[in-house]
Design goal:
alpha/beta; Undecaprenyl pyrophosphate synthetase; six-stranded parallel sheet; 8 helices
């Protein structure tokens, strides 16, 4: 497996079950990104993509959105040494418009500083939506004056935010919800999907190993006949 993607669901439910504020669930969830991210890369996965903040999440309370943006800024600044120490590349996927100037600058700095790291890449999907990704790709194609007969799957793949990143082999969603919610709408077309009942803060390295074992047991046919 080259690419694992995860929808980080259940942070607030975890916090409520623990009698803690929602903010503590988000903080614990971010800590899990670092722990599970390193474990995934140690297992030979080249890319871990996490759905951290969707284009719909702006509808949450101003206080909660502000805390999530502070967490993102912390990941890109205070924790940059952590990613450098472990030789992890960082890339932020999503619309930069709508993010503060401070966060946009932090994204550019973090991506530049970690670009040469070789242990693997963590892709943080922030202000991300699968439909928005396709809309922006189409707008770019139209702006370039492409004719209808020039539009191919390969061209669209070159214009989406996930350009240059291999399609995910497996998408995991935690917390029991059984939908993808617009995550990797284009690049996840042929991804295997695994729904896990545990909330994201409770998702452990053992759960990661179980998910990888489940994936390895599947017969991926991509519309063809079984190889078995």
């Amino acid at each position: 497996m080259r690419h694992l993607a995860i929808i980080l669901d259940g942070n607030r439910r975890w916090a409520k079950a623990q009698g803690l504020p929602a903010f503590e669930g988000h903080r614990r969830g971010y800590d899990q990104v670092k722990e599970i991210g390193l474990a995934a890369l140690e297992r030979g996965i080249e890319h871990l993509t996490v759905f951290a903040f969707s284009t719909e999440n702006w509808k949450r309370s101003q206080e909660e959105v502000g805390y999530l943006m502070d967490l993102l800024l912390k990941a890109l600044t205070n924790d940059l040494a952590f990613y450098m120490e472990h030789r992890v590349r960082l890339r932020v996927i999503g619309r930069r418009v709508g993010l503060s100037d401070k966060i946009q600058k932090a994204i550019r700095v973090a991506e530049e500083k970690t670009a040469a790291n070789t242990a693997g890449q963590i892709n943080l999907c922030i202000n991300y939506g699968g439909r928005a990704e396709l809309v922006d790709a189409v707008k770019e194609i139209i702006a370039e004056g492409k004719s209808p007969d020039q539009i191919t799957e390969e061209l669209i793949s070159e214009k989406i935010w996930m350009q240059g990143i291999p399609d995910p082999d497996l998408i995991i969603r935690t917390s029991g919800e059984q939908r993808t919610s617009g995550f990797l709408t284009w690049s996840g077309t042929y991804s295997e999907i695994l729904f896990v009942k545990k909330t994201w803060p409770d998702f452990s390295v053992a759960d990661l190993d179980a998910a990888l074992a489940d994936y390895n047991s599947r017969d991926r046919r991509f519309g063809g006949n079984s190889a078995s």
